[in-house]
Amino acid sequence: MDPLNPPWWTAAVVYQVYPRSFADSDGDGVGDINGVRGKLDHLADLGVDVVWLSPVYRSPQDDNGYDISDYRDVDPVFGTLADLDALIAEAHDRGIKVVMDLVVNHTSDEHPWFVESRSSTTNPKRDWYWWRDPRPGEHPQPTSWQSFFSGPAWELDATTGQYYLHLFSRKQPDLNWENPEVRAAVHEMMRWWLDRGVDGFRMDVINMISKHPDLADGPPIPGSPWTDGSASYLFGPRLHEFLAEMHREVFAGRDADLITVGEMPGVTVEQAREVTDPRRRELDMVFQFEHVGLDHGDSKWDARPLRLTDLKASLGRWQAGLADVGWNSLYWDNHDQPRAVSRFGDDSPRYRRDSATCLATLLHGHRGTPYVYQGEEIGMANSRWADVRDFRDIESLNHYADATARGEDPEQVLAALRPASRDNARTPVQWDGTEHAGFTTGEPWIAVNPDHVDWNVAAQREDPHSVLAHHRALIALRHANRTVQLGAFAMLLPDHEDVYAYTRTLHEDGPDDETLLVVCNVSANPYPLADLLPEAVSAELVLGNRDHLPDHDPAVLGPWDARILRLR
Ligand code: ISL
Q: Which of 362, 370, 357 is nearest to 331 (CA)?
């Protein structure tokens, strides 16, 4: 990172749209591209620089569009290619860039490439996917890997008697990136989208595209008949080579205006630093998962309380590890994660606003590019799931079927689904307090959260102290302040159980030197500032989340109180 000439995305905030749940323009109950077009003014008003669009490509929708059957067309449920062109043009008119989701670890099993590949062992596209013979022994699967969505990661295909690999659902066969034709086809498709005007890609599970040729069985997964093969498919031996090749073939010469972010479950700080080292020309930034793994055991369904000291240790390590080389992305929420205010905050009526604004302040103050997930800007919360029939997500439904088939108590499985299901992120955006929250005039594909009556965009738009207004202010601050963009990060109070505090310092060797102090009370326990951080007592307030409240005491960090202060 050249601090004198930083890339534009060091000052940017990205907003993720999950189109299925954003806004429905045609009353079929499913959000669509024209729905997004109709809400662009909301995004412009929020001030975001980039919209990342979750997949709208043609898809059987087995995994809500992460199973793509045509990379160059839009699924009818979302609209048409012409609608998408119009969305890109209208976003650009407002100065908003558009990033597409790139899902190329796997395709749909209905993609013509796979249809051909499965047709015979001698088909020219056979080697575009991972085909293997059954093996003798207890498990005929070529490896005993478990799929991310429960059950084995291999499916037997009756036509040829061989198994194909699917790390995700059986309708998401993994592409074989060892084959140069596969890579060339992906590159060509990516150039086609850039030529259409898109401004970059969020790359789905991109650290899984290089598999270790051994395909070795991993260690057993407790409670499962399958094993963890992740050592064979996470960050395989050719990943750097594939990413550098993609950069050369797709981005070279046009990368200055683009943004690339690789989703990388299990990525380490060291790996992320390599991948985002600008000299290597691979990716601008990655999504890491460490901080969203701190509140559960090995399985995401095994909830544990989050310890704030663990969060500090983790995020602090990422800040330090990417301080000189590389760049962080910053997020709490996305379409796979439960809602942050319910998970890390307190979504009871008393503290919901304050904890949502506190968490936002904590996140946006870090060095990196913040990502806001739709609805996060108004403090949307997890839903109340009465029954397993309320869920729609393949991961949740497969887990329920699998666990109950293995004899687990259905009530307990359901109790684990409620706080952790990806569907918490997928309830429709709450635009207003009317029926179906203004999301659709039809029957929504997944139930609207009943709390939309009180928590919605319309109610917050004109309120200067709303969660929405606070996000607006945080985004404006990032745009305006070089310390927020580039200042060095230093963690304070690493052992404090409730207060998350850090400084950001910009050394410009002159009048622009500045140190900001971000101090956030991630609890309802009040703390006198003088005991915590004496230097904060007389510091100038840049942005607070509770300073307008009648009970606010500048000398005491109240419940979920979050402040950005200027030390010098
Ligand atoms: O969602 C998860 C845990 O609940 C992750 O394991 C998730 O499956 C993983 O991060 C990969 O996610 C991405 O690829 C999946 C897709 O289902 C997710 O929506 C996507 O974000 C397969 O394409």
A: 370
pLDDT, one tens digit per residue, over 44-71 is: 999 999 999 999 999 999 999 999 999 9
Percent helix, strand, coil in the chain, to 5, is 35, 15, 50
Q: What's the pLDDT tens digit per position in 391-445?
A: 999 999 999 999 999 999 999 999 999 999 999 999 999 999 999 999 999 999 9
Q: State which ligand 1 atom lies nearest to the alpha carbon of 168.
A: 22
Q: Where in the chain are the domains?
A: 112-165, 487-566
Range 487-566: architecture per CATH:
Sandwich (2.60)
Q: How far is CA 184 from CA 99, 128, 178, 208, in A?
A: 21, 12, 11, 18
Whether residue 18 has its Cβ less than 6 Å from ligand 1: no
Pocket mutation for ligand 1, best pick of 20, 68, 106, 205 (most atoms within 8 Å of C-beta): 205
Give nearest CA residue, ligand 1 atom 8: 148
Query: What is the CATH number that goes with domain 112-165?
Result: 3.90.400.10
* Catalytic machinery residues: 204, 263
Residue 30 structure tokens = 């499913």
* Amino acid in the structure at residue 509: D
